[in-house]
Design goal:
The complex is a heterodimer.
Chain A lengths: L3 H6 L11 H6 L1 H9 L3 H9 L1 H7 L4 H8 L3 H6 L4 H10 L4 H9 L3 H14 L14
Helix pairs in contact in A: 3-8, 4-5, 9-10
Chain B lengths: L3 E8 L3 H9 L8 H4 L3 H10 L3 E6 L14 E4 L3 E2 L14 E2 L2 H13 L5 E3 L6 H10 L9 E7 L9 H16 L6 E7 L16 H10 L12 H8 L6 H10 L5 E12 L2 E10 L1
Parallel strand pairs in B: 1-8, 2-7, 2-8, 3-6
Antiparallel strand pairs in B: 1-10, 3-7, 4-5, 9-10
Chain lengths: 135, 281
């Protein structure tokens, strides 16, 4: 068995939910829908009829609401896993910095600066970061 | 007879790297400190001339879904295609497999108590392809065959760092009993510290990354004392991808390793990116 200290970390890391059986069960339908977005035809079908597409995958009311509101933390709370949610985000033209901003309440520029500042603090060639916000 | 293990190549696999390559952004100020880490890798590979790469990586929802999630999956296919992953990356070149070597490794693994999933059909995602795009830019066809070994980093319980190291050591034993002197490079893909999800998104831990880079070569046991949950706490939810590096280090065997090249840069996308080559000392 996983030791008790590690089990406690599943829900014990601030701002973090480790994706275990409880969350995987809760999120299966949402993640299944996101997995379908590997296929371009499915991405187009979602954009053409979001409500109908979500119904086809039997999203729970909580999941459907989080998707409708583009609420990433809500999707995670509803069992979404970021590896699959990233495929949904891609449909909306959002990358992982956009997702980071949405989840932390920062602007995208602030979130990118937060990452750059960590590089500067670690001594990673800060003079080369002048155009960093472009990426 | 035994395979010749020429060394280990370790690399981040952030999808954004694929985007930068597609746009030709390697010399842009944001990307240059990262891409500057790769000419020494290419020089080393050109001299070391591997025939086969054993690649430890994690699938991001291209081949495996939560309906059936293997903890350890070993490819035994003649070829491994990439496909659309849903976020706009180019589709990467198909890899050739080495089924005979794959089955030999599978025999050793199961014989050693690693009851792996065996895959005769297996799509490989950016986590496998991007280290090759970085190491072999502009080739028409990949110059090495692969044996892909996917480790679950998605759905807990995840295998522990110790277990992944032991998996790698079993792969090493398989290479030692291989029928010819095939030249093998071991690859660990992923990391280092990063977190994409939750209100802690953007979390990076440069101290832990440096600890890993400093100890992987000749004191890998130092990386095995944490549980996977503890690694997530220390290195971020996706920082657990370090287990791919740990497994690859195990596959190099217990002899001393020399550092051929190392690069470390924050940030690439949301990630502390690292590049490392180790060769038997």
């Amino acid at each position: 068995m996983t030791n008790p200290e590690s089990m406690a970390l599943r829900r014990g890391i601030a701002g973090t939910l480790l994706f275990d059986g409880e969350l995987a069960s809760r999120g299966f339908e949402l993640n299944a829908m996101c997995f379908s977005f590997n296929d371009q035809a499915n991405r187009a079908a979602f954009l053409a009829d979001e409500e109908g597409y979500c119904r086809r995958y039997n999203l729970t009311a909580e999941q459907r609401d989080a998707v409708a509101r583009r609420d990433v933390l809500g999707m995670i709370e509803a069992g979404g896993n970021v590896y699959y949610l990233a495929k949904l985000a891609g449909i909306f033209g959002l990358n992982v910095q956009d997702l980071g901003a949405l989840q932390t309440g920062m602007s995208v520029a602030e979130f990118k600066q937060y990452l750059l500042d960590q590089g500067t603090a670690a001594g990673c060639a800060p003079e080369r970061h002048s155009e960093g916000l472009a990426a | 007879m035994s395979a010749q293990i020429i060394g280990g190549y370790f690399s981040s696999h952030v999808p954004g790297i694929g985007g930068a390559i597609a746009r030709g952004d390697q010399s842009q100020p944001y990307w240059k400190p990262f891409f500057d880490g790769y000419p020494p890798v290419r020089q080393w590979l050109a001299q070391a001339r591997p025939d086969v790469a054993i690649v430890f990586y994690n699938d991001h929802g291209l081949n495996f879904f939560l309906d059936a999630m293997p903890t350890f999956a070993v490819g035994a296919a003649a070829d491994y295609p990439n496909e659309d992953e849903g976020w706009g990356l180019p589709v990467y070149k198909t890899f050739q497999g080495d089924p005979a070597l794959s089955w030999h490794i599978i025999e050793e693994l199961v014989g050693s108590g690693f009851d792996v999933t065996m895959c005769q059909k297996m799509k490989v995602d950016h986590a496998l392809s991007i280290p090759f795009e970085l190491a072999y830019p502009d080739v028409a066809a990949w110059p090495v065959k692969i044996v892909p070994i996917a480790i679950n980093t998605v759905q807990y319980p995840l295998p522990s760092p110790q277990r992944c190291y032991d998996l790698g050591r079993a792969v090493h034993r398989a290479l030692q009993s291989w029928q010819d002197d095939t030249r093998v490079v071991v690859i660990g893909s992923g990391g280092l510290s990063h977190q994409l999800d939750g209100s802690r998104a953007g979390f990076i831990n440069a101290d832990y990354d440096r600890f890993c880079l400093d100890h992987l070569a000749n004191e890998p046991e130092a990386l095995l004392r944490h549980s996977t949950e503890e690694v997530a706490a220390i290195a971020g939810t996706q920082g657990v991808e370090i287990v791919n590096w740990i497994a690859a280090r195990g596959a190099l065997g217990q002899g001393p390793q020399a550092e051929v090249t190392r690069n470390y840069h924050i940030p690439i996308s949301n990630t502390a990116a690292a590049t490392l080559v180790l060769a038997p000392a």
